[in-house]
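Moderator note: this is an archived Q&A kept for reference. The question asked for a predicted structure of one protein chain; the sequence and the answer are reproduced below.
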Amino acid sequence: MAIVNNDKLIIANSPAEFTAALPSAARLLGLDVGEKTIGLALTDATRRIATPLSTIERGKFTKDMEHLKKIIAAHAVAGLVIGYPINMDGSLGPRAQSTRTFVSNLQKYIELPMLLWDERLSTMAVERAMLEADLSRARRDALVDKLAAGYMLQGFLDSVR
């Protein structure tokens, strides 16, 4: 069931419900939520291309939210697509529960439409590409979260076109 707050859709059940809650031309922010970092990616206003943006080193939740709010305001973001780590067999494990807890807390700070999006294999695909590009381990570690967010967000964009 969709979660609605103050007559605004907060967490959508489906991509169609999510996109219906958005203005016709506005940016989306993709989040790849990990234990230590949050990878961020941003779409263009026409929602055709996702670009890796940055990584937030996780610390105190309220500080992380202030950082996220600044990014949302600076880029006029209208909605959030949050990577949902579903297991390969379709089941939900501890990482999925951790993400749901994060989103539950997030919606107390940010009132934008949100969608949990299956991120299976996004990190693996990004890591494989970086290995093929012969990036050092340190460089891969620095890039993986924002690249995974970009990969996941582009997957969402491609699916709704």
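Archived answer notes: The chain has one domain: 3-160.
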